[in-house]
Every structure is written in structure tokens, then in C-alpha cells.
Amino acid sequence: MLTFIKNLLAGSKRYSENLNDQETKKRQSYANTKPGNKITDLQRGNEYLANGDFANAAACYRQAISQYPDFADAYINLGFVLKEQALYGQAEATLDQAILLAPQSADAQYLLGFAAHEQGNLDKAIQHYQVALAIKPDFEEVYLSLLNALFDCGKIDALKAKIEKALALFPLTPEFHFFAGNMHYLSEKYNRAIECYQRAIQLRPDFYDAFNNLGKVFLHIGNSKYAFRAYEMALTINPKSIEAESSLLFLRTNHFQPHPDSYLTEAKHFGEKVTQMAIPYTEWSEDISDPDFVPLRIGFVSGDFHQHPVAYFLESILCEIDPKNIQLISFPSSSLEDELTTRLKTYFSEWNPIVGLSDEIAAQKIHAHKIHILIDLAGHTTHNRLPLFAWKPAPIQVSWLGYFSSTGVAEIDYVLADPVSVPES
């Protein structure tokens, strides 16, 4: 949580300390006045916010803005509330106004970056985070978000430079050791990555993300036993974790060969988890299942649109598809690209990355493209986005190519296979 939000949840102490003498005198004159002055409205909004009452908090901030249109703090706090409500467009408009009033507000720049980040606009997010750090070089929360955005973009050089600065400023913050591990993982320096994740866990023994990524590294170097332990620890820390449970399912099918019945039980448990997190597909407002619609719009969700067996196999099939009858739309879940990516892009009419988007926002994005058939190419492998399928963004959903066991997600209607990939037995 933002430092400034921590302060405002405790009241308006920060603001009273930062006001100049003239503003302090004004506030003293407000002390005995009725609600409707800007300080009272701000404080009341902060109290509502502290109790999680976003609607009344927003109403108070809007009341302050209506009477005092130049009250930057109210715009910033309102922007935070709108961001928390996932009303990112409104949050951006509000925070743009805050920056006009207070150009040196690191908080407003950070919140604008966060709103852009949540909408998948990583370049814009990075720009705002960097401005926030230029204003306030020791803004710890901004470093965390910036590193996350740089990691999602795969910008290793920029990531390395920022991590070094962050660790110099905050050597005991476990998140920065965690991001150092991510950087080394991207650079294929796996032993260094393990050391960084272990250091993060030393600083915070219940660091879920560090255990989860430690599992990824062990899995990548072929140490399935240690990977299994790391994922189990991650799931113990966070029993609601989708990613750790998905990784354990992958390990069970590819390394430990469980009995099919036991695997299916665990896969269904995973599916029930993601279904509970999603709004049923019946709540989508539009029906796009018209069988006469031509061309047929087929969407693909994958993190493997690069040099990977899935991509090579996919390329050999996409080149045979007639674009007059079938329109292909991609939804990459990884930012990794190479020369194979360039070739694949020529077969798709649209290229719509969902990196950094929440499952809900990603599902909304896919649904907005009026996809008829949505195909998952990952299953429980790396970069999978199985939870978004629980939102049922397309009327027909299929698992194909990247995984040949059940995903457990009930909203996936079919498995596309042949007697080689899935023998009759």
C-alpha cells in the first residue's frame, strides 16, 4: 500500500504537517465549521476509506473538489479510490487534474502509473513511475511497481540498473532481492537467482512469491524434487494460490506420474478454485455465438509465441488456414519475442498482449473482440492464463497442443487431440 495512503488512513496528519503557514491558519478556522469545507471533507473521506467504504469516501472527496476545485489532495485521494474500484479511466482523468494542480506530486504520478499498469499499458506505466522517482528518489513503493513492469516487459538492462539502485537504498527489503532473482532468471543465471530468492525468504520467511519463483527455477534446471517442495511451501503460505497449484499439477503429470483418478480430483479442485473467482459467463451482455457469422473468429492464448515446440507446431498449421473463412486473433501471455514471433504475427489479424492484465480485465478484453472459439495452448505450463477461461469470454473454449491432461477448468469445453497425443487407452 502507498506510503501516503497509509498516512491518510491514519487521518490527515501528513497533510497538516506539510501545509504552509497560511494554509495552517485556514485549517484552524475550519476546525469548528460544519461539513462542507475542504479539510473536513478530506478527513471524512479518509475515515470512510479506512473502513473500506469507497462510495462514501469518493463522495466526500468530490464534495471537497466541488467547493475547492484547486484542492490537489482531494483529487489524489479520489484517484486512489477510483483505482481501487478498478475504474481506471476515471482514475486517470482525476489524477491528470491532480498533476495540473500539483506537478511535483509523486503520489499522483505513481497512481497514474498503477492505473496504466493494470490496463496493460506497461510503457505508459513505466514512464509515470520514472517521473515519480525523479520527484521522490526514495519512493519505495514506486521502485517495486517499476521493477514489476520492467520484468513484465522483459527489459533486463533497465531492470538491472533499477534493482541495483533499489538494493542500495533498501538492502533489507525482501522484494528487491526477489526482483534481483527475477532478473537473474531472465538472464539464465539460475544459481544467482536461487541465491536471491533464498535471501528474500531469509528476510521474510512467509514470502509466497519467492517460494513460487524458486520452484520455477528448480523446475527449469530439472530439480523436480526441490521444485515440488518450493511450490508446496508457496501453497502452504497461500492456500488460495492459483499459480502454485497449477505448477504442482504440471509437476505431477510430467515428473511423478500420479494415478489418473487422483490427478483428476486435484485438477477439478483447481478448476473449482478458478470458477469461484470468476463471474459466470452467463453474465456477459452480448451473445456472439451466431453460427452464420463469417469469418469465424478464433482466439489463441499462449505464452509460447516464440522459439518453442508449441510455436513451431502451430506455425505449420496456421499457414494452411484460409483467412477469408477463419480470422485468427492472438492473446500472448508473455512479452518474449524472437524471429519466430515475427513469422507467426503474419498469420494473425490482431495481436493483443494480455501481459500484466488481471484475469478479469484480460477476459473482458478477449470478450470485447467477439471471439467465437478461444483456444488455450498452455494448460498448466509456464505463462498459462487458465483462470481467465473461467470467466467464459468466448462461447466455445478449447484446450489444445501445449498440455494433454485435464486442466480441471470446467469452462473449457473440449480437448483437441488425436490418437497420438491422447491414446485411446
Task: Describe the structure in your own words.
The chain is α/β, with parallel strands linked by helices and 425 residues long. The protein is 59% helix and 7% strand. The chain has helices at residues 3-9, 13-18, 21-30, 38-50, 54-67, 72-84, 88-101, 106-118, 122-135, 140-153, 156-169, 174-186, 190-203, 208-220, 224-237, 242-256, 260-277, 309-318, 339-345, 359-368, 386-389; strands at 296-302, 326-332, 350-351, 373-376, 396-400, 414-416. Strands 3-2-1-4-5-6 form a 6-stranded parallel beta sheet, with no helix packed on it. Helix 21 links the parallel strand 4 and strand 5. The longest helix is centred in the middle third of the chain and has 18 residues, at 260-277. Mean pLDDT is 87; it is low at 1-35.
Radius of gyration: 24 Å
Q: DSSP strand (E) fraction?
A: 5-15%
Main β-sheet description: 6 strands, parallel
Residue share in helix: 55-70%
Secondary structure category: alpha/beta
Number of helices: 21
Report mean pLDDT, rounded to a whole number: 87
Q: N-to-C terminal Cα separation, in Å? A: 52 Å
Shape: globular
Low-confidence stretches: 1-35
Across the major sheet, the strand order is 3-2-1-4-5-6
Please trace the helix and strand order, writing H or E for each element: HHHHHHHHHHHHHHHHHEHEHEHEHEE
Strand tally, please? 6
Name a few traits of the molecule.
425 residues; disordered N terminus; 6 strands; 6-stranded parallel beta sheet; alpha/beta; single chain
